[in-house]
Amino acid sequence: MKLFASGLVSALLLVGAVSAQGSSNRSGTRVPSLIDPRTRFTNQVILPDQGFPGLHRNWDPPLDSGEESYVGSRRLRGRKALITGGDSGIGRAVAIAYAREGADVTINYLPEEQPDADEVRALVEREGVRFHAIPGNLRNESFCASLVHRAHRAMGGLDILVSNAGYFVTHFNISTLTTEQLLRTFEVNVFASFYLVRAAAPLMPPGSSILFTSSGMARRPHAAAVDYAATKAALISMAQTLGLQLGPQGIRVNAVAPGLTASNFLTSHGLTTENATYITSQLPLGRIAQPAELAPIYVMLAEGSSSQSLASAYGVNGGNLSL
């Protein structure tokens, strides 16, 4: 089984995203049919000085989660999606893309991230679909179950679950990695995904899709990511096993494994602009990803035409196989 179909699949997704956006973006500017991935976005990323969880709105220049760049073609019309971590970064990009593809959207986020969630509400409701915001901490098992059922009631159904929220703090020496930190990383990244799927699967009809946000570190971890890399590898394993278990019910389960992406996730685990600049210089495309570049694969894996996409992990890593 191919765990990281990042080469051809990612290339096709990029072309598909451009095609789906048509010939113009939301501001009416022509979008070329051929886009050089090296220069699509700037290679200069300035990280705001903020801790966990941080705010999307604090980035200057702003991140691109598709606010102006993503134009959908109603590929998910009538679908009902729950997205954790949907206020910022990749989750925000997925929420915007799903709305512009015609899906109703419910997002989850931490209460401290309410300003970002309010921005997502405005962006989603502009598309004429239903939007619901449910703040809360995914470390709580009861809340995870409640979140699923509240989203199901609010939207009148649930057929897309994106378990995207994540947590990571670097530790270069295992002696500084506390048990509390280890548990927190697993609670957010793995246990919450399990709780969400356990509650959602009985409610989801055939044709539904469940997606986990894993990471390139699941395959090639960094030395300072002992707990984080382990959780992301666990998510790929869960995508495989749950895909095999739920496939006979017509529910597809997959994972997406992004590479380094500009988002609050970077600032929350201590990366600085200087660090990001050095890493950028080592990347094949000479830049890290913007969240908008991840959205197309989440759309592709959620739509019904991807009916053979099951129990796999898809890399969108800019060719950086060392992540």
UniProtKB/TrEMBL annotation:
**PROSITE patterns in the record, alphabetically?**
ADH_SHORT (PS00061)
Signal peptide (UniProt feature, chain positions) = 1-20
* Gene3D superfamilies referenced in this protein's UniProt entry, alphabetically: NAD(P)-binding Rossmann-like Domain (3.40.50.720)
* Keyword entries, A-Z: NADP, Oxidoreductase, Signal
**Presence of the UniProt keyword Signal in the record:** yes
Record family assignment: Belongs to the short-chain dehydrogenases/reductases (SDR) family.
Q: What is this protein called?
A: NAD(P)-binding protein
Query: Which species is this record about?
Result: Parathielavia hyrcaniae
